Amino acid sequence: MPGDLIYLDNAATTYPKPRPVLDRMIDIYGRQGVSPGRGSYDLAVEAEELAGAARSKLARFFKCPDPDRVIFAGNATDALNLVIQGLIRPGDHVVSTRLEHNSVLRPLYHLRQQGRIDYDLASFDGQGFIDPAEIGRLIRADTRMVIVNHASNVLGTVQPVAEIGRVCADRGVPLIIDAAQSAGVIPIDMSAWQVGAVAFTGHKSLFGPSGIGGLAVSPELEIQITRFGGTGIDSHSLTHTPTFPHRLEAGTLNLLGVIGLSLGLDFLEAEGIEVIHRREMELLARLRDGLAGLPGIRLYGVEDLSRHVGLMMVNVEGIDPEDVGAILDADFDIAVRVGLHCAPLVHESLGTAPRGGVRFSLGPFNRVEEIDRTIAAMRLIAESGKRSGKPR
Ligand SMILES: Cc1ncc(COP(=O)(O)O)c(C=O)c1O
After folding, report:
1. Which of 9, 10, 72, 77 to mutate to test the pocket of ligand 1 (most atoms within 8 A of CB)?
2. Among 214, 247, 270, residue at a domain's last position
3. How many Å apart are CA 196 and CA 164, to the nearest integer?
4. Quick one: 52 and 146 in the same domain?
């Protein structure tokens, strides 16, 4: 960590990545980094085995019955585009929520602007939770899928996915979850929860590098091919390989990312998801309690931390969130994310649009002392109302 930086932007990406993950990733890629699945020489077979082992690990991790149905993509955004574009047909209806990130909202909006689909968005209550019954009410005869944000990147609230899964299964509609913020902190059981597909990203709480993510797809869900190209097999055919995982993968795999993601999962397993989550929640509770006592500070969605991940948003009365972020950075060396966090409808519903808020997001390497320094910094900001002199 450079200097004395307090990094509280782990919801954007976890930082730093565990050193053993980075070192081993480079080492393995240095020795075995050839194109997987494209040759019959030993190294190419080994590279393919690395990818296969990572699929198996991810399948166990998400309780996906078939490792071949774990496909790699660039990140959660890429995976969500694959599943959304691959499921919809002209005239379809989609149900989603106002908690979504732009990685869901923008593909849906684009498709609606093109006149190809229509959608309805479930609202959330004052604490940031979706009511599964509302999802049920929004499902129509022509609803093709329900897409739900598992853990909000603005409020940190975790949605009752098992219950939503039951509602969707009763209506015969696949449930897709955006697990960008939950994978690695909340155990996910796509089989028990009757989830059709889980979109994940590697660089947040899975501790892989950026540029790798994917989709775990239930055996019952068919997804149309929307990207075409080389898969290393069936090369005589001009038709894209129809079988999983190649069905949804085109072009050379990001093997460096796959190796890093696989090592990130090893790190998680060694540390224990529950242990990491508990530690982050203890720190979040300390931060919440410390900030709650300060004058002019408003907290959002943190009354009930029992269904939460380690992040929260606040605002300081009379000071623009961007200024709060700039002061934290310039005067206290604290890195946070301010603004709308790529989730504009959350802020519309909360009444915090268009300026947004200040998000503190914790990671496994944060310490109690850093939380206390953050509370002290926020106390000074709230009490003095001072603005940063840092040029922007
Ligand atoms: C809830 C949520 N969904 C999707 C994404 C997109 O993840 P990525 O940028 O890795 O594609 C993010 C990233 O911040 C997120 O918080």
Report:
1. 77
2. 270
3. 12
4. yes
